[in-house]
């Protein structure tokens, strides 16, 4: 591999940005494609499919045999709220190969005993996310029902381009949330990205069922995301 390409690939890994190393098997030069790069035709379709699946692939494009070696950041679910749903969701998400972080300033809920083996931060989300900022390969799940805790990370997730933003609450609760976020300057387009009520509509009732609905919705958002746009915070 070309040293410049290797250096760039390592830089992208540090920045948690996705890339594909496209190798021409007929002996042509390697090409590094970053998620969001503008492409056209059959190559664009093949690259988009590879980014979404997360699986490297051998493809034929305009008479060329290309091996698309995909490098994705490990997807992470950041859960705001150390509640019963979070306990189940964290275990399920780990089985699906998601890294999970739980953030909750309420130390009565955010205890190591309740979240054994889980990355747990007992702090206000605004402070925790300064140290560990959100990015486009993170899903934000807000489940505290407390605007003082949930609203700020939701706004950050929308501004940073998290691939999924979901919030627990009834339609009435969500309507109030939207009004508060509008006052903070978020646009209708931003707010339309919030999944609320959270989770796929499967009639979930128990914490475990709600966790299943949330995780399924997150997986769908990851695999169906728009890979044609540049990733990163809004300018």
Automatic annotation (TrEMBL):
Residues 77-218 form the XdhC Rossmann domain. InterPro entries: MoCofactor_Util/Proc (IPR052698), XdhC_Rossmann_dom (IPR027051). This is Xanthine dehydrogenase accessory factor.
């Amino acid at each position: 591999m070309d040293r410049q390409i290797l250096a760039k690939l390592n830089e992208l890994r540090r920045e948690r940005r996705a890339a594909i190393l496209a190798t021409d098997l007929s002996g042509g030069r390697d090409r590094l494609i970053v998620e969001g790069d503008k492409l056209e035709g059959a190559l664009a379709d093949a690259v988009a499919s590879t980014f979404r699946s997360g699986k490297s692939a051998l493809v034929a494009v305009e008479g060329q045999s290309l091996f698309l070696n995909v490098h994705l950041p490990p997807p992470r679910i950041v859960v705001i709220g150390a509640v019963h749903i979070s306990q189940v969701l964290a275990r399920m998400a780990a089985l699906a190969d998601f890294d999970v972080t739980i953030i909750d300033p309420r130390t009565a809920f955010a205890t190591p005993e309740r979240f054994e083996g889980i990355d747990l931060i007992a702090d206000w989300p605004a402070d925790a996310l300064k140290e560990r900022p959100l990015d486009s390969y993170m899903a934000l799940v807000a489940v505290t029902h407390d605007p003082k805790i949930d609203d700020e990370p939701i706004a950050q997730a929308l501004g940073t381009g998290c691939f999924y933003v979901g919030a627990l609450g009834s339609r009435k609760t969500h309507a109030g949330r939207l009004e508060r976020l509008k006052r903070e300057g978020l646009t209708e387009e931003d707010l339309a990205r919030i999944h609320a009520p959270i989770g796929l509509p499967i009639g979930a009732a128990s914490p475990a069922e709600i966790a299943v609905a949330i995780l399924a919705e997150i997986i769908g958002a990851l695999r169906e995301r728009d890979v044609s746009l540049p990733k990163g915070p809004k300018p």
